[in-house]
Model the fold of this input.
Amino acid sequence: MLIGPYVNGSAVIIGGLLGATSSAFIPERVKNSLPLIFGLCSVGLGISLIIKVKYMPAVVLAMIIGTALGELLFVEKGIGKAAGSTRTIINKFLPPVKGLSQDAFTEKFVAILVLFCASGTGIFGAMHEGMTGDPSILYIKTVLDLFTSAIFATMLGFSVMVIGIPLVIIQVALAMLATLILPMIAPDMMADFSCAGGLLMVATGLRICNIKTFPVANMLPALVLVMPFSWLWAHLIG
Done:
């Protein structure tokens, strides 16, 4: 029985609720400084995943083609529209967070959506539990996500809670498919997958810190391409 995805999703919902309801009591300097720390941690974790790479040319090729596909499919634009709709619906029932424009809201919402739902830790943790029944990796992510969602909810309001839903769906799907996927994955392929996930986490961290606005959501197709590209590189070139 799967446990990790539901615990992780619940943490995001609870953290979002706590952060949104306590926003008025948290000093502005804390709201401004902690996201920078989360962004820094995302960069650090991303770097730790990047150094595991086996075939960097395959990863680079997957990132370039994947991002091009994401741009052509307007992935980030679609997520942005969904984020705006989510904010509108939630604001009808719950108090909205004032002082944040729609563009600023979408910018931050997309970044944390990728941070929560597409991190290498979450994807690998879900696959690991599906294959072994061990949810320990997702438990570690749960602790981080609880505090991260709370802080971002002080800026984005109750909309952060909604992220818990796609997070659970994605992780459950990965866990259920893990028995079919993992036997076909070589260690080198997993290393390159971790590298691609690390690059996304670095881009997400830089975006959260407002250093550079990478099209993070449009980069997501690279995660689908990187393992096949790694396998092809190993067998045809490497």
User: Anything to note?
Assistant: Residues 14 and 150 are 8 Å apart (CA to CA). The chain has one domain: 4-237. The chain has a mean pLDDT of 84.
